[in-house]
Fold:
Amino acid sequence: MLEVTKLECRRGDRRLFTDLGFALNAGTLMHVRGRNGSGKTTLLRTLCGLFIPDEGEIRWRGESIRALAEDYRRDLLYFGHTNGIKGELTGLENLAIGATLDGDRLSEKAIWDALERIGLTGFEDLPTRMLSQGQKKRVALARLILTKAPLWILDEPFTALDVDAVALLQSLIADHVAAGGIAVLTTHQEVPLTSGQIEQLNLGN
Amino acid sequence: MLRVFWCILSRDLTLAMRRRTDVLTTLFFFVIVVSLFPLGVGTESKALQIIGPGVVWVAALLASMLALERLFAADYEDGTLEQMLLTAQPLSLLVLAKVTAHWILTGLPLVLIAPLVGMQFQLTDNAIIIMMLALLVGTPILSLIGAIGAALTLGLRGGGILLSLLILPLYIPILVYGSGAVEVSRIALADTQPYFALLGAFLLVALIFAPVASSAALKISLE
Structure:
């Protein structure tokens, strides 16, 4: 479903990667590995369409993601280094806004349930700036429960999470892949899969 | 479409209500700058009536400039802007909603407080009404044009100064016709019509092009 051909990205004069190619089918998990500065985040941002590659093409269901634009973004969920939640808004409000922007109509109940599942019972209607780092991250990760997007691009999703949250996130990713989704992630944490296949990509050699 | 527009608009208004200082600073800045002039120039009513409209407009430009920097910066820092870029909604619609919220928070209060500051310049009732109308049409243009600059300077060091250098020259036509309308109204009320026609035309052009230009600039800034 996701095909990358002859991708090349530069940051200034430095060539991060060149002639990169891979294809991911439904039900695949891809680990992107590499030392710091090898271009993992740049690759993920390029896959999202936030960063325009110097060479090469990215195709989603056979069509270029630049041509698909909004149709591609509807199928995509990106989780970056920032949580993408507003400190002044509560967890509920943050998730409700996110869902509306994704074009989903969610009931308030669904959001309550998602926050409960992610382990934030009792914190749903506190402004998220009052929460700890790990809890903020959990609010952001609750999107994974609510979304219907088939393609997940997660940049270091496990940092700042405790053991329980790591296990929960692992199971969320495994479920997503088992249900025919695609997940691309940079992490040093292994994700055990029940079904589906794992691809490895090493950057910067 | 409307649902998404309303979602972002109410989001930004809620955020502002939970952090009121930002909104109030702009308003007080406007009032203080305007109030300094009568104190410095003296109480001669002729002189005050002549400089009044210009001073109010310059203060309005500076006040709206002051708030512009925060238009996208807060969302940029916490990553919500990035998420907005990745939603299935047209970015220019989201930008338009954000600019509308920005105008309601920083432009509209200036319009409403204009009679109060107008009195300090001993402006006539007619002049004050014309000034309010001119500000009502003019301040959305300031927000719309300003959004382009705010998007372009996003994430730059010393972006604030650069923003003023970029945007203030573009504000000149609004300043000229906005204060011109008030000036002319002292002679003949009917003569203000062309000024409003021009301001209205600026507003329409800005409404169409500014959201598109700002969203293109945002995409570049976030790359």
